[in-house]
Amino acid sequence: MVSKKAQEMKEFLRGMFVPELDWRAMDWEEARRFSDETAVMQPLPEGVIVTQDILNGIHVERIQVPGHTGKVLFHIHGGGMTIGNSRSARFMLAHTGTLCGRDTVSVDYRLCPEYSQPAAVEDCAAAYQGLLEEYAPQDIALIGESAGGMLVLALLAYLKQHGLPMPSKACVISGSADPMYDSPSMTENRETEVVVCLNLRQVMHEYYFCDGDLHDPVLDPMDSDLSGWPPIYFHACDDEILRDESVRMHEKLKAAGIPTKLTIKEGLFHCYMLYDLPESYEAFREFSDFLR
Description:
Elements: H1 4-16, H2 28-38, E1 49-55, E2 58-64, E3 71-76, H3 90-100, E4 102-107, H4 119-131, E5 140-145, H5 147-161, E6 169-173, H6 185-188, H7 200-209, E7 232-237, H8 243-255, E8 260-265, H9 278-291
């Protein structure tokens, strides 16, 4: 049973929903300011310390949790590749990190439309390589939501492509994996989506993929060689258009013999755990159980 608070938030988002994004007419600075002002950053668990840092030339936010185990989460934020920053998921990361005993490093990457691929992945890779100076790869886990989930998969493909050490595991929350967005839920859930624009494929091809090689595993992890990838936990919602991106990638990993887990939540919405809802704390426990 979905909580009243979650139902009210879903209806609020439905009222704000813009089905077809006219990205050329967007004032991106204003959109980023609004996103930053409305991001949920409280309440945080007692004893959490948040600081800003530069890691291998890339700005990051560090979240230190009490009782940390010497392991770390490397976080890539969402925001459709256009908005969001290393602070956007502070609420989710502080709670998840506290539960699993991991500090977090959340990375800022170059955004669209000012920068298309491969800028975001290169920034994430640079910060990850900086983190390898502080932690052994077996002590690093990746986590990302929405576009950040897509970039988690892209980063894993990049690391394999460049012979760099893989992290121990990864958590992908409502991310995409197919640059063609051919998943059934992209059409089946057009009437139930309340967050992600319905012309996502067109928008992403115009400002992110652009003239990139869509056969490059970094842009198309769905059809790449997945051997050597770490265990991955996929988390999505039944009513969102990106649901089957997680389902399909989960099945691809299973077929490749990679340990993988999939959770589909009913009655909720894209990246609901970024809000202070009763269901969010359940999600934090699910993430932490996998990330411990």
